[in-house]
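Chain A, query sequence.
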Amino acid sequence: MQRQRPDSPWAPLGEPLFRSLWIAAVVSYTGTWMQNVGAGWLMTQLTDSPFMVGLVQAAAAIPVFLVVLPAGALADMVDRRRLLLVTQGWMVFAAAALGILTLSGAMSPWVLLLFTSLMGVGAVMNDPAWQAITPDVVSPQRHASAVALNSAGFNVARAAGPALGGIVVAAAGSGWSFLLNAASFFGVILFLYTWKRTPSAPQPSQRVTAAIAEGFRYVQGAPQVRSVLIRTGAFSIGASSLLALLPVVCQPHGAQGYGFLLTCFGLGAFCGAAVLPRLRVQYSVDGLVAGATVVFAVMTFAAGQVHIFEWLCLVLFTAGAAWIGILACFNVVAQTMCPSWMRARALSMYLLVLQGGMAIGSALWGAVAARQGVPEALAWSALAMVVGLSTIRRHRLTAAELEMAPAVVRD
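Chain A, predicted structure.
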C-alpha cells in the first residue's frame, strides 16, 4: 500500500489556540533549561563529587515514583485546566525560593537537591494533565503533528535555554537563573486563566486509588501499551548518563561551555524534529527508534573519550538529533494509545517509566563514575542502551501495534 504524504509538521501553529499555548510553553521550557544549567553548575561549585552532580538530575525525577500515578488519576477525574493552574503556581514558588536561597548564600548540596525535588513534584503533577490537554487545543487530524511539534518546541527551548542559562550563570550566578525560571511560568498561567475550555463529560465519582487500579487493569488488557512501556524503560536507564554527567565532562570549559554544549544538543534535537516526519514515511517506527538508539549510544560513549570542545559540540549535536527521533516516537505513541477517559493515567504510567528510568540511571551512572570514572560510566551506559534493543523482538512498535487501544466498558 502506498504511504501517504504526512501533513506539514508546522500545520498546528495555524490554529490560534494551539499557537498561543505553544509559544507560552516554549518560554516556560526555556526557563526550565536555564534552571537546569544553574542547578547542575551550582552543584559542581558546592561539591566535587560526581555522584552528587548525578543526583541533581535524579532529584528532579525521583518524585515521579511518588506522585505521577495519582497525578494521572487526578487529571482524569478533575478539571485539567484548574489542576494545571495549581501545579504551575507550585513551580513558581519552588523556583523563586531556590533563587532567593541561592542569592542569600543559604545554599548547600542537600538544600539544592531538596528544592530540585520540590520542582520535580510540581513538574510530575503537571505532566499528565499537560500532555492530555493537547487534543483539546488542536483539531483531531493534526493531533500527531501537534505532539511532535510540542517536542520540537521543547527542543527550541533546549537550544536557547542552556545558552542563556550559561550566560546568566557566568554573569550573575545560578540564583538569577532560578528567578528567571520562576518568571517564565507566567505565560502559561495567563493562557490557562483565560482559556475557555469546553467542559468534558463528567467522570464517575471514585477514589484516586480506585482510578489508579482501573488504569492498571486497562494496561493489563492492552499489549501495545505494555510494549511502549517496556521499550521506554529499556532506553531511559542507559540514556540518562549523558545529560546527568555532562556537567563533569565539560567542567574544564566553564559554565558558558556547559550551556553551549546543551545548546548544541538542543539544536540537534530541533533539526532532528524537522526531518522526523519524512523519516517516518521512509522507515518503520522500530527501524527509526533502533537506528537512533545506536547513534545515541555511540555519541554517549564518544562524550567520555573526546576532550576537544569543538568535537564535543558535534557529539552533543548528533546525540540531540538521535534523542528526538526516539522520544518523539515514544511520546506520540503514548498520547494516542488510549481513549480520552484513560489518557492521563496511561500517560502517567509512561512518564513513570521514562522519568523513573532516567532517575535510576542518573544515580546509577553517577555512582559508577565516582568509583570507576566518567568515561567508564558513559561506556557502560552506552552498552546498556544497545543491549536494551533486544526488547524489539517481542515488543514491536510497528503501525499495526500503534492503533489506539480499544475502550473498555466500565461499570
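Confidence is low (pLDDT under 50) at residues 1-6, 399-411. The chain is about 80% helix and 0% strand.
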